[in-house]
Specification:
544 residues, alpha+beta, 6-stranded antiparallel β-sheet, 5-stranded antiparallel β-sheet, 14 helices, 29% helix, elongated, disordered N terminus, disordered C terminus
Length: 544
Protein backbone atom coordinates (compact mmCIF):
# COMPACT_ATOMS: atom_id res chain seq x y z
CA UNK A 1 0.00 0.00 0.00
CA UNK A 2 1.64 3.21 -1.21
CA UNK A 3 1.26 6.38 0.83
CA UNK A 4 1.74 10.05 0.03
CA UNK A 5 1.16 13.05 2.27
CA UNK A 6 -1.02 15.92 1.13
CA UNK A 7 -1.53 18.46 3.87
CA UNK A 8 -3.29 16.74 6.74
CA UNK A 9 -4.85 14.05 4.51
CA UNK A 10 -2.79 11.09 3.38
CA UNK A 11 -3.43 9.71 -0.10
CA UNK A 12 -3.11 5.91 -0.15
CA UNK A 13 -3.14 3.38 -2.97
CA UNK A 14 -5.01 0.26 -1.84
CA UNK A 15 -4.98 -2.80 -4.11
CA UNK A 16 -7.20 -5.83 -3.68
CA UNK A 17 -9.03 -8.38 -5.78
CA UNK A 18 -12.65 -7.59 -6.68
CA UNK A 19 -14.61 -10.74 -7.48
CA UNK A 20 -17.81 -8.82 -8.24
CA UNK A 21 -18.67 -7.74 -4.71
CA UNK A 22 -16.07 -5.25 -3.42
CA UNK A 23 -17.25 -5.72 0.15
CA UNK A 24 -18.56 -2.20 0.72
CA UNK A 25 -21.14 0.30 -0.49
CA UNK A 26 -20.61 3.95 -1.35
CA UNK A 27 -22.27 7.13 -0.15
CA UNK A 28 -21.94 10.74 -1.23
CA UNK A 29 -21.82 12.16 -4.73
CA UNK A 30 -20.21 14.68 -7.01
CA UNK A 31 -20.61 17.60 -4.59
CA UNK A 32 -19.43 15.99 -1.33
CA UNK A 33 -17.24 13.16 -2.64
CA UNK A 34 -17.62 9.38 -2.88
CA UNK A 35 -16.92 7.56 0.42
CA UNK A 36 -16.46 3.96 1.56
CA UNK A 37 -19.39 2.93 3.75
CA UNK A 38 -20.47 -0.26 5.59
CA UNK A 39 -17.30 -2.15 4.70
CA UNK A 40 -17.23 -5.87 5.44
CA UNK A 41 -14.41 -6.48 7.97
CA UNK A 42 -13.77 -9.92 6.43
CA UNK A 43 -13.47 -8.60 2.87
CA UNK A 44 -10.28 -8.31 0.85
CA UNK A 45 -10.75 -4.53 0.75
CA UNK A 46 -10.72 -4.31 4.55
CA UNK A 47 -7.76 -6.67 4.81
CA UNK A 48 -5.76 -4.36 2.54
CA UNK A 49 -6.48 -1.22 4.55
CA UNK A 50 -9.78 0.30 3.36
CA UNK A 51 -11.96 1.74 6.13
CA UNK A 52 -15.24 3.60 6.44
CA UNK A 53 -14.74 7.28 5.73
CA UNK A 54 -12.12 6.82 2.99
CA UNK A 55 -12.84 9.09 0.04
CA UNK A 56 -12.24 7.45 -3.35
CA UNK A 57 -10.24 9.62 -5.73
CA UNK A 58 -9.33 7.16 -8.48
CA UNK A 59 -10.23 3.58 -9.36
CA UNK A 60 -7.68 1.79 -11.55
CA UNK A 61 -6.48 5.20 -12.67
CA UNK A 62 -9.95 6.41 -13.67
CA UNK A 63 -11.37 9.53 -12.08
CA UNK A 64 -13.95 9.08 -9.32
CA UNK A 65 -13.69 12.57 -7.82
CA UNK A 66 -16.50 14.70 -9.22
CA UNK A 67 -18.59 11.71 -10.34
CA UNK A 68 -22.18 11.38 -9.26
CA UNK A 69 -23.10 8.51 -6.98
CA UNK A 70 -24.80 6.74 -9.88
CA UNK A 71 -21.75 7.09 -12.15
CA UNK A 72 -19.30 5.94 -9.44
CA UNK A 73 -21.46 2.91 -8.61
CA UNK A 74 -21.56 1.85 -12.27
CA UNK A 75 -17.80 2.28 -12.68
CA UNK A 76 -16.90 0.24 -9.59
CA UNK A 77 -19.21 -2.59 -10.67
CA UNK A 78 -17.52 -2.78 -14.07
CA UNK A 79 -13.97 -2.87 -12.66
CA UNK A 80 -13.53 -6.55 -11.83
CA UNK A 81 -10.34 -8.39 -10.99
CA UNK A 82 -7.52 -6.35 -9.55
CA UNK A 83 -8.82 -3.05 -8.19
CA UNK A 84 -6.51 -0.22 -7.13
CA UNK A 85 -8.19 2.62 -5.28
CA UNK A 86 -6.49 5.91 -4.47
CA UNK A 87 -8.19 7.09 -1.30
CA UNK A 88 -7.74 9.56 1.54
CA UNK A 89 -9.33 9.50 4.98
CA UNK A 90 -11.99 12.24 5.32
CA UNK A 91 -13.88 11.09 8.39
CA UNK A 92 -15.42 14.46 9.32
CA UNK A 93 -16.84 15.06 5.85
CA UNK A 94 -17.97 11.42 5.70
CA UNK A 95 -19.96 11.85 8.92
CA UNK A 96 -21.72 14.88 7.47
CA UNK A 97 -22.73 12.86 4.39
CA UNK A 98 -23.95 9.93 6.48
CA UNK A 99 -25.91 12.32 8.70
CA UNK A 100 -27.61 13.61 5.55
CA UNK A 101 -28.79 10.13 4.60
CA UNK A 102 -25.81 9.36 2.37
CA UNK A 103 -26.78 12.08 -0.10
CA UNK A 104 -23.93 14.01 -1.65
CA UNK A 105 -24.91 14.92 -5.21
CA UNK A 106 -25.51 18.49 -6.23
CA UNK A 107 -25.87 19.86 -9.76
CA UNK A 108 -28.40 21.60 -12.00
CA UNK A 109 -29.93 20.33 -15.23
CA UNK A 110 -32.28 21.81 -17.79
CA UNK A 111 -34.79 19.39 -19.29
CA UNK A 112 -34.90 18.96 -23.07
CA UNK A 113 -38.01 16.77 -23.17
CA UNK A 114 -41.55 16.58 -21.82
CA UNK A 115 -42.85 13.99 -19.38
CA UNK A 116 -45.77 13.72 -17.01
CA UNK A 117 -45.22 12.34 -13.52
CA UNK A 118 -47.36 9.22 -13.82
CA UNK A 119 -46.52 7.76 -10.41
CA UNK A 120 -46.78 9.21 -6.95
CA UNK A 121 -43.81 11.35 -6.07
CA UNK A 122 -42.71 11.88 -9.69
CA UNK A 123 -42.43 15.46 -10.93
CA UNK A 124 -43.82 16.61 -14.25
CA UNK A 125 -41.09 17.61 -16.69
CA UNK A 126 -41.41 20.23 -19.41
CA UNK A 127 -38.81 21.38 -21.86
CA UNK A 128 -36.82 24.21 -20.31
CA UNK A 129 -37.52 23.28 -16.67
CA UNK A 130 -34.58 23.68 -14.28
CA UNK A 131 -33.97 20.99 -11.66
CA UNK A 132 -31.57 20.82 -8.73
CA UNK A 133 -30.52 17.15 -8.49
CA UNK A 134 -29.57 16.02 -4.98
CA UNK A 135 -29.39 12.20 -5.27
CA UNK A 136 -28.75 10.16 -8.43
CA UNK A 137 -29.08 6.77 -6.72
CA UNK A 138 -31.94 6.97 -4.18
CA UNK A 139 -32.08 3.87 -1.99
CA UNK A 140 -29.25 2.44 -4.17
CA UNK A 141 -31.77 1.78 -6.97
CA UNK A 142 -30.94 3.21 -10.43
CA UNK A 143 -33.56 4.74 -12.70
CA UNK A 144 -34.70 7.87 -10.86
CA UNK A 145 -33.10 11.06 -9.51
CA UNK A 146 -34.25 13.04 -6.49
CA UNK A 147 -34.62 16.67 -7.49
CA UNK A 148 -36.11 20.08 -6.72
CA UNK A 149 -38.00 21.85 -9.49
CA UNK A 150 -36.82 25.44 -9.35
CA UNK A 151 -39.37 26.95 -11.71
CA UNK A 152 -42.39 25.04 -10.42
CA UNK A 153 -45.72 26.81 -10.40
CA UNK A 154 -47.68 27.43 -7.23
CA UNK A 155 -49.92 24.40 -7.77
CA UNK A 156 -47.06 22.08 -8.74
CA UNK A 157 -44.96 19.78 -6.60
CA UNK A 158 -41.49 21.19 -5.96
CA UNK A 159 -39.71 18.10 -4.60
CA UNK A 160 -39.83 14.58 -6.01
CA UNK A 161 -38.16 12.29 -8.54
CA UNK A 162 -37.42 12.64 -12.24
CA UNK A 163 -36.19 10.04 -14.77
CA UNK A 164 -32.42 9.56 -14.81
CA UNK A 165 -30.46 10.35 -17.95
CA UNK A 166 -30.91 6.92 -19.57
CA UNK A 167 -34.67 6.81 -19.03
CA UNK A 168 -35.04 10.42 -20.11
CA UNK A 169 -33.22 9.67 -23.37
CA UNK A 170 -35.66 6.84 -24.06
CA UNK A 171 -38.56 9.24 -23.51
CA UNK A 172 -36.96 11.80 -25.81
CA UNK A 173 -36.47 9.20 -28.56
CA UNK A 174 -40.11 8.15 -28.37
CA UNK A 175 -41.22 11.76 -28.56
CA UNK A 176 -39.07 12.33 -31.62
CA UNK A 177 -40.65 9.32 -33.27
CA UNK A 178 -44.17 10.47 -32.48
CA UNK A 179 -43.45 13.92 -33.90
CA UNK A 180 -41.35 12.94 -36.89
CA UNK A 181 -43.06 9.78 -38.08
CA UNK A 182 -46.56 9.51 -39.54
CA UNK A 183 -48.83 6.58 -38.59
CA UNK A 184 -48.48 5.20 -42.12
CA UNK A 185 -44.70 4.93 -41.76
CA UNK A 186 -44.17 1.41 -40.48
CA UNK A 187 -40.49 1.92 -39.73
CA UNK A 188 -41.42 3.82 -36.61
CA UNK A 189 -43.29 0.80 -35.26
CA UNK A 190 -40.41 -1.50 -36.12
CA UNK A 191 -38.02 0.79 -34.32
CA UNK A 192 -40.19 0.71 -31.19
CA UNK A 193 -39.94 -3.08 -31.12
CA UNK A 194 -36.19 -2.86 -31.60
CA UNK A 195 -36.00 -0.17 -28.95
CA UNK A 196 -37.75 -2.42 -26.43
CA UNK A 197 -35.48 -5.31 -27.46
CA UNK A 198 -38.40 -7.51 -28.43
CA UNK A 199 -37.97 -7.92 -32.17
CA UNK A 200 -40.66 -9.92 -33.89
CA UNK A 201 -39.61 -13.28 -35.25
CA UNK A 202 -41.62 -12.67 -38.43
CA UNK A 203 -39.68 -9.55 -39.40
CA UNK A 204 -37.73 -10.19 -42.57
CA UNK A 205 -34.13 -9.20 -43.16
CA UNK A 206 -35.09 -6.24 -45.32
CA UNK A 207 -37.02 -4.57 -42.52
CA UNK A 208 -34.16 -5.26 -40.12
CA UNK A 209 -31.73 -3.50 -42.45
CA UNK A 210 -34.04 -0.49 -42.62
CA UNK A 211 -34.27 -0.39 -38.82
CA UNK A 212 -30.48 -0.48 -38.43
CA UNK A 213 -30.11 2.40 -40.88
CA UNK A 214 -32.74 4.53 -39.18
CA UNK A 215 -31.58 3.84 -35.60
CA UNK A 216 -28.45 6.04 -35.58
CA UNK A 217 -30.37 8.85 -37.26
CA UNK A 218 -33.08 8.75 -34.57
CA UNK A 219 -30.56 8.64 -31.72
CA UNK A 220 -28.30 11.34 -33.14
CA UNK A 221 -28.60 14.63 -31.34
CA UNK A 222 -30.80 13.25 -28.54
CA UNK A 223 -30.21 15.27 -25.37
CA UNK A 224 -32.38 14.58 -22.34
CA UNK A 225 -30.74 16.93 -19.84
CA UNK A 226 -28.20 19.72 -20.16
CA UNK A 227 -25.93 20.54 -17.26
CA UNK A 228 -26.35 24.23 -16.41
CA UNK A 229 -24.78 26.61 -13.94
CA UNK A 230 -25.62 30.11 -12.82
CA UNK A 231 -23.30 32.85 -14.07
CA UNK A 232 -23.45 36.61 -14.45
CA UNK A 233 -23.99 37.68 -18.04
CA UNK A 234 -20.91 39.10 -19.71
CA UNK A 235 -23.00 41.12 -22.21
CA UNK A 236 -26.17 43.15 -21.96
CA UNK A 237 -29.13 40.88 -22.39
CA UNK A 238 -31.93 41.54 -24.91
CA UNK A 239 -35.14 42.99 -23.44
CA UNK A 240 -38.56 41.86 -24.69
CA UNK A 241 -41.30 44.33 -23.73
CA UNK A 242 -44.81 42.91 -23.38
CA UNK A 243 -48.10 44.50 -22.40
CA UNK A 244 -50.27 47.42 -23.44
CA UNK A 245 -48.64 50.28 -25.34
CA UNK A 246 -45.29 48.42 -25.57
CA UNK A 247 -44.21 50.35 -28.71
CA UNK A 248 -44.55 53.65 -26.87
CA UNK A 249 -42.64 52.23 -23.89
CA UNK A 250 -39.71 51.23 -26.15
CA UNK A 251 -39.57 54.74 -27.61
CA UNK A 252 -39.45 56.22 -24.09
CA UNK A 253 -36.50 53.95 -23.13
CA UNK A 254 -34.55 54.93 -26.26
CA UNK A 255 -35.03 58.62 -25.58
CA UNK A 256 -34.15 58.29 -21.91
CA UNK A 257 -30.95 56.18 -22.25
CA UNK A 258 -29.71 55.77 -25.83
CA UNK A 259 -26.35 54.52 -24.51
CA UNK A 260 -28.09 51.52 -22.91
CA UNK A 261 -30.89 50.66 -25.33
CA UNK A 262 -31.28 50.34 -29.08
CA UNK A 263 -33.84 49.03 -31.54
CA UNK A 264 -32.69 46.67 -34.35
CA UNK A 265 -32.78 48.18 -37.82
CA UNK A 266 -34.12 45.04 -39.48
CA UNK A 267 -36.84 42.52 -38.74
CA UNK A 268 -36.09 40.17 -35.88
CA UNK A 269 -38.98 37.74 -35.96
CA UNK A 270 -39.78 35.47 -38.94
CA UNK A 271 -43.20 33.89 -38.31
CA UNK A 272 -42.96 31.76 -41.47
CA UNK A 273 -39.79 30.00 -40.27
CA UNK A 274 -40.51 27.12 -37.90
CA UNK A 275 -36.89 26.05 -37.36
CA UNK A 276 -35.53 29.48 -36.43
CA UNK A 277 -38.34 32.02 -35.96
CA UNK A 278 -35.96 34.69 -34.62
CA UNK A 279 -32.96 36.32 -36.31
CA UNK A 280 -30.47 35.67 -33.53
CA UNK A 281 -27.59 37.35 -35.39
CA UNK A 282 -29.31 40.75 -35.25
CA UNK A 283 -29.88 40.48 -31.51
CA UNK A 284 -26.28 39.41 -30.85
CA UNK A 285 -25.05 42.46 -32.71
CA UNK A 286 -26.72 44.78 -30.20
CA UNK A 287 -25.42 42.76 -27.26
CA UNK A 288 -21.85 42.90 -28.55
CA UNK A 289 -22.13 46.67 -28.87
CA UNK A 290 -22.89 46.86 -25.15
CA UNK A 291 -26.58 47.75 -25.44
CA UNK A 292 -29.89 46.12 -24.62
CA UNK A 293 -31.74 45.10 -27.78
CA UNK A 294 -35.37 46.25 -27.31
CA UNK A 295 -37.81 44.03 -29.17
CA UNK A 296 -41.46 42.91 -29.18
CA UNK A 297 -41.96 39.19 -29.86
CA UNK A 298 -44.76 36.67 -29.91
CA UNK A 299 -44.83 33.92 -27.23
CA UNK A 300 -43.49 31.17 -29.59
CA UNK A 301 -40.52 33.37 -30.51
CA UNK A 302 -39.88 34.06 -26.81
CA UNK A 303 -39.87 30.33 -26.06
CA UNK A 304 -37.37 29.81 -28.86
CA UNK A 305 -35.00 32.40 -27.38
CA UNK A 306 -35.35 30.95 -23.89
CA UNK A 307 -34.95 27.29 -24.79
CA UNK A 308 -32.87 27.16 -27.96
CA UNK A 309 -30.36 29.99 -27.50
CA UNK A 310 -27.97 31.27 -24.86
CA UNK A 311 -29.15 34.90 -25.11
CA UNK A 312 -31.19 34.68 -21.88
CA UNK A 313 -33.64 37.49 -22.76
CA UNK A 314 -35.23 39.67 -20.08
CA UNK A 315 -39.00 39.38 -20.53
CA UNK A 316 -40.72 42.44 -19.01
CA UNK A 317 -44.49 42.54 -18.73
CA UNK A 318 -46.28 45.81 -17.86
CA UNK A 319 -49.52 45.00 -16.03
CA UNK A 320 -52.61 47.22 -16.48
CA UNK A 321 -53.75 46.91 -12.79
CA UNK A 322 -57.27 48.26 -13.43
CA UNK A 323 -59.51 49.78 -16.11
CA UNK A 324 -59.16 53.26 -14.64
CA UNK A 325 -55.36 53.05 -14.77
CA UNK A 326 -55.51 51.83 -18.36
CA UNK A 327 -57.69 54.80 -19.25
CA UNK A 328 -55.21 57.26 -17.73
CA UNK A 329 -52.14 55.68 -19.35
CA UNK A 330 -53.90 55.39 -22.72
CA UNK A 331 -54.58 59.11 -22.68
CA UNK A 332 -50.82 59.78 -22.29
CA UNK A 333 -49.23 57.12 -24.48
CA UNK A 334 -51.84 56.32 -27.16
CA UNK A 335 -54.59 58.96 -27.20
CA UNK A 336 -55.60 58.14 -30.78
CA UNK A 337 -56.02 54.43 -30.18
CA UNK A 338 -59.59 53.41 -31.01
CA UNK A 339 -60.07 50.50 -28.60
CA UNK A 340 -61.77 51.20 -25.28
CA UNK A 341 -59.94 50.95 -21.95
CA UNK A 342 -62.25 48.15 -20.81
CA UNK A 343 -61.53 46.03 -23.85
CA UNK A 344 -57.77 46.59 -23.52
CA UNK A 345 -57.84 45.65 -19.85
CA UNK A 346 -59.74 42.40 -20.49
CA UNK A 347 -57.33 41.37 -23.25
CA UNK A 348 -54.33 42.15 -21.05
CA UNK A 349 -55.69 40.00 -18.22
CA UNK A 350 -56.18 37.05 -20.57
CA UNK A 351 -52.65 37.41 -21.95
CA UNK A 352 -51.11 37.58 -18.47
CA UNK A 353 -52.99 34.48 -17.34
CA UNK A 354 -51.96 32.46 -20.41
CA UNK A 355 -48.31 33.45 -20.78
CA UNK A 356 -47.33 34.50 -17.29
CA UNK A 357 -44.79 31.65 -17.08
CA UNK A 358 -42.65 33.39 -19.71
CA UNK A 359 -42.20 36.63 -17.77
CA UNK A 360 -38.90 37.49 -16.08
CA UNK A 361 -40.40 40.41 -14.18
CA UNK A 362 -43.65 42.40 -13.99
CA UNK A 363 -44.10 46.16 -13.61
CA UNK A 364 -47.48 47.69 -12.83
CA UNK A 365 -48.77 50.79 -14.63
CA UNK A 366 -49.55 53.77 -12.40
CA UNK A 367 -51.43 56.98 -13.00
CA UNK A 368 -48.20 58.94 -12.53
CA UNK A 369 -44.83 58.31 -14.17
CA UNK A 370 -43.31 56.17 -11.41
CA UNK A 371 -43.98 53.03 -13.40
CA UNK A 372 -41.28 54.13 -15.88
CA UNK A 373 -38.62 54.38 -13.16
CA UNK A 374 -39.73 51.02 -11.79
CA UNK A 375 -39.33 49.59 -15.29
CA UNK A 376 -35.71 50.73 -15.60
CA UNK A 377 -34.91 49.41 -12.13
CA UNK A 378 -36.43 46.03 -12.99
CA UNK A 379 -34.33 45.74 -16.17
CA UNK A 380 -31.16 46.62 -14.26
CA UNK A 381 -31.99 44.12 -11.51
CA UNK A 382 -32.52 41.29 -14.02
CA UNK A 383 -29.28 42.16 -15.80
CA UNK A 384 -27.33 41.79 -12.55
CA UNK A 385 -28.92 38.48 -11.60
CA UNK A 386 -27.10 35.21 -12.38
CA UNK A 387 -28.38 33.40 -15.44
CA UNK A 388 -28.43 29.75 -16.35
CA UNK A 389 -25.55 28.91 -18.65
CA UNK A 390 -25.07 25.55 -20.37
CA UNK A 391 -22.05 23.49 -19.32
CA UNK A 392 -20.52 21.15 -21.88
CA UNK A 393 -19.23 17.70 -20.95
CA UNK A 394 -15.70 18.83 -21.80
CA UNK A 395 -15.95 21.76 -19.37
CA UNK A 396 -17.17 19.50 -16.56
CA UNK A 397 -14.46 16.92 -17.26
CA UNK A 398 -11.66 19.51 -17.45
CA UNK A 399 -12.69 21.14 -14.17
CA UNK A 400 -12.91 17.86 -12.27
CA UNK A 401 -9.68 16.50 -13.77
CA UNK A 402 -7.77 19.64 -12.79
CA UNK A 403 -8.97 19.38 -9.21
CA UNK A 404 -8.11 15.68 -9.07
CA UNK A 405 -4.61 16.19 -10.46
CA UNK A 406 -4.00 18.78 -7.77
CA UNK A 407 -4.96 16.28 -5.06
CA UNK A 408 -3.81 13.01 -6.61
CA UNK A 409 -1.66 13.10 -9.76
CA UNK A 410 -2.40 10.30 -12.17
CA UNK A 411 -0.18 7.23 -11.85
CA UNK A 412 0.18 4.02 -13.81
CA UNK A 413 -1.93 1.12 -12.57
CA UNK A 414 -0.83 -2.54 -12.87
CA UNK A 415 -3.09 -4.39 -15.33
CA UNK A 416 -5.72 -6.50 -13.68
CA UNK A 417 -4.56 -9.77 -15.28
CA UNK A 418 -1.31 -9.59 -13.31
CA UNK A 419 -3.23 -9.94 -10.05
CA UNK A 420 -5.44 -12.88 -10.89
CA UNK A 421 -5.46 -15.63 -8.26
CA UNK A 422 -4.87 -19.17 -9.48
CA UNK A 423 -7.89 -21.42 -9.73
CA UNK A 424 -5.83 -24.57 -9.22
CA UNK A 425 -3.78 -24.59 -6.03
CA UNK A 426 -2.05 -27.95 -6.84
CA UNK A 427 1.45 -27.97 -8.40
CA UNK A 428 1.42 -28.35 -12.15
CA UNK A 429 3.50 -31.20 -13.56
CA UNK A 430 2.83 -30.48 -17.24
CA UNK A 431 2.33 -27.58 -19.56
CA UNK A 432 0.53 -26.98 -22.80
CA UNK A 433 1.98 -25.10 -25.72
CA UNK A 434 -0.08 -22.02 -24.84
CA UNK A 435 1.73 -21.34 -21.57
CA UNK A 436 5.14 -22.83 -22.36
CA UNK A 437 7.92 -20.19 -21.95
CA UNK A 438 10.53 -19.68 -24.65
CA UNK A 439 13.32 -19.88 -22.07
CA UNK A 440 13.62 -21.33 -18.63
CA UNK A 441 14.16 -19.13 -15.61
CA UNK A 442 17.89 -19.93 -15.74
CA UNK A 443 18.13 -18.99 -19.40
CA UNK A 444 18.23 -22.55 -20.74
CA UNK A 445 17.02 -23.35 -24.23
CA UNK A 446 14.08 -25.62 -24.87
CA UNK A 447 15.01 -28.98 -26.31
CA UNK A 448 12.58 -31.11 -28.20
CA UNK A 449 12.59 -34.82 -27.29
CA UNK A 450 11.62 -37.63 -29.58
CA UNK A 451 7.97 -38.50 -29.66
CA UNK A 452 6.89 -41.38 -27.45
CA UNK A 453 5.97 -44.45 -29.49
CA UNK A 454 2.77 -46.26 -28.64
CA UNK A 455 3.24 -49.46 -26.67
CA UNK A 456 1.79 -52.76 -27.48
CA UNK A 457 -0.72 -52.45 -24.74
CA UNK A 458 -1.86 -49.11 -26.05
CA UNK A 459 -4.50 -48.33 -28.62
CA UNK A 460 -4.04 -46.28 -31.80
CA UNK A 461 -6.85 -45.04 -34.00
CA UNK A 462 -6.13 -43.83 -37.52
CA UNK A 463 -8.77 -41.31 -38.58
CA UNK A 464 -7.54 -40.69 -42.05
CA UNK A 465 -5.45 -38.01 -43.65
CA UNK A 466 -5.35 -34.70 -41.87
CA UNK A 467 -6.48 -36.16 -38.55
CA UNK A 468 -4.20 -36.95 -35.65
CA UNK A 469 -3.92 -40.06 -33.56
CA UNK A 470 -5.55 -40.85 -30.27
CA UNK A 471 -3.24 -42.66 -27.90
CA UNK A 472 -4.61 -43.96 -24.60
CA UNK A 473 -2.98 -45.71 -21.60
CA UNK A 474 0.49 -45.84 -23.19
CA UNK A 475 3.50 -47.19 -21.28
CA UNK A 476 6.67 -45.10 -21.49
CA UNK A 477 9.53 -47.01 -19.84
CA UNK A 478 7.29 -48.10 -17.05
CA UNK A 479 5.63 -44.72 -16.64
CA UNK A 480 1.90 -44.35 -17.12
CA UNK A 481 0.85 -41.56 -19.49
CA UNK A 482 -2.72 -40.26 -19.63
CA UNK A 483 -4.67 -39.19 -22.69
CA UNK A 484 -2.68 -37.41 -25.41
CA UNK A 485 -4.41 -35.95 -28.42
CA UNK A 486 -1.96 -35.35 -31.23
CA UNK A 487 -2.95 -33.20 -34.19
CA UNK A 488 -1.30 -32.12 -37.40
CA UNK A 489 1.28 -29.36 -37.46
CA UNK A 490 -0.29 -25.96 -36.82
CA UNK A 491 -3.30 -27.42 -35.01
CA UNK A 492 -4.23 -26.90 -31.38
CA UNK A 493 -2.84 -29.21 -28.73
CA UNK A 494 -4.28 -30.15 -25.36
CA UNK A 495 -3.34 -32.74 -22.72
CA UNK A 496 -4.23 -33.87 -19.25
CA UNK A 497 -1.64 -34.05 -16.52
CA UNK A 498 1.37 -36.08 -17.68
CA UNK A 499 3.15 -38.41 -15.31
CA UNK A 500 6.58 -37.13 -16.34
CA UNK A 501 8.00 -33.59 -16.03
CA UNK A 502 7.61 -32.35 -19.58
CA UNK A 503 5.55 -30.07 -21.78
CA UNK A 504 3.96 -30.73 -25.11
CA UNK A 505 4.59 -28.55 -28.14
CA UNK A 506 2.59 -29.40 -31.25
CA UNK A 507 2.48 -33.05 -30.36
CA UNK A 508 6.13 -33.27 -29.28
CA UNK A 509 7.58 -33.75 -25.79
CA UNK A 510 9.81 -30.93 -24.52
CA UNK A 511 12.30 -30.35 -21.72
CA UNK A 512 14.74 -27.69 -20.48
CA UNK A 513 18.52 -28.12 -20.72
CA UNK A 514 18.98 -28.14 -16.97
CA UNK A 515 16.29 -30.79 -16.65
CA UNK A 516 17.29 -32.86 -19.65
CA UNK A 517 19.73 -35.25 -17.94
CA UNK A 518 17.23 -36.15 -15.24
CA UNK A 519 14.39 -36.61 -17.68
CA UNK A 520 16.46 -38.51 -20.23
CA UNK A 521 17.83 -40.80 -17.58
CA UNK A 522 14.35 -41.35 -16.26
CA UNK A 523 13.00 -42.28 -19.67
CA UNK A 524 15.89 -44.30 -21.20
CA UNK A 525 18.60 -44.67 -18.58
CA UNK A 526 21.10 -43.36 -21.15
CA UNK A 527 22.41 -39.98 -22.09
CA UNK A 528 21.36 -39.32 -25.70
CA UNK A 529 23.53 -37.56 -28.24
CA UNK A 530 23.33 -33.79 -28.65
CA UNK A 531 21.71 -34.17 -32.03
CA UNK A 532 18.79 -36.49 -32.58
CA UNK A 533 16.15 -36.97 -35.15
CA UNK A 534 12.51 -36.68 -34.31
CA UNK A 535 9.46 -37.25 -36.38
CA UNK A 536 6.69 -34.69 -36.34
CA UNK A 537 3.03 -35.46 -36.63
CA UNK A 538 3.11 -35.27 -40.45
CA UNK A 539 5.81 -37.94 -40.78
CA UNK A 540 8.68 -35.57 -41.69
CA UNK A 541 12.00 -35.50 -39.91
CA UNK A 542 13.52 -32.46 -38.20
CA UNK A 543 17.26 -32.10 -37.45
CA UNK A 544 18.08 -30.39 -34.09
Amino acid sequence: MNQRNLGNHEVRAVTFYNSGNPGFIIVGGNAEGIFIHSIDPNSSAAANGLTNGDQILRANGQRILGRTKEEADQMLKLLGGQLTLHVRSMVDQYKVVVGNGGIGDGFYVQAQFNGDGAKKGELSVHEGDIFSVTDTLPENCPGLWKAHKLNAKKNEEHVGTIPNKQKAEQIAVKQRLSLGKSPADQRGGNFFRSFRRSKSAERNSRNQDEDEKSLPQLNSGIVSYQRVVQRLSENRRPVVVLGLFCDSVISMLIRDAPELFEVPQEAVESPDSTEEPVNVKVIRGSCHRGRHCLIVLTPPAIEFLQQKTDLNPIIVYISPVSKSVVKTVKAKLAPNYSKSAGYLYDEAVKFEKTYGHLFSTCVAYTTDDWWFFHLKEAIGSCQNQPIWRTLTDDEVEASNEAELNRICPKVAVVPANQFRPSRDKTPRMSRTTDDLPLHSQNGGRIKLLPPIPPSAGGREHHRGKGEGTDIRNDKVDGSNRSILKQRQTGGSVSSDQVGIRSGIAKGMSVSFDQEAPEMQHHSTGKTPSTKSKIANSMGHETQL
